[in-house]
Design goal:
The protein is mostly beta strands. It has no helices and 10 strands. The chain starts with 11 loop residues before the first strand and ends in a 6-residue tail after the last strand.
Length: 113
């Protein structure tokens, strides 16, 4: 059994300093075909837009967000789960009065997906 606990004090800046992140479980650590991480955006922070070859699921653990995917903007709140298709340009912004905490899972899609 492996357990990892979210610890905001252990988060490090990622995505060129636009989000705090802490690795969770995934990849070689548990022989899984996916990666995972917690993210935290302080008030007003916005992740640098990116386009990647992986699909992602974002779960909003705490707070409120605006998710930008291509030209679409969607408000998100605690408890929401969002899918980001591989190849989509995306960014997430803390739109609330408190920290935004997310949990992300990503994987390289296969033809069967």
């Amino acid at each position: 059994m492996k357990i990892k606990t979210l610890d905001k004090t252990k988060m490090q800046l990622a995505h060129e300093g636009t989000i705090y992140a802490q690795g969770a479980l995934g990849g070689k650590e548990i022989a899984a075909p996916f990666g995972t991480a917690w993210g935290c955006l302080k008030i007003g922070m916005q992740q640098k837009p990116e386009r990647s070859e992986v699909s992602k699921l974002y779960f909003i653990v705490e707070g409120q967000a605006e998710m930008h995917i291509e030209d679409e903007v969607s408000p998100l709140k605690q408890g929401d789960l969002l899918h980001i298709p591989a190849g989509s340009k995306h960014s997430i912004k803390n739109s609330g009065p408190d920290d935004l905490v997310t949990f992300a899972i990503w994987w390289k899609p296969t033809e069967e997906n």
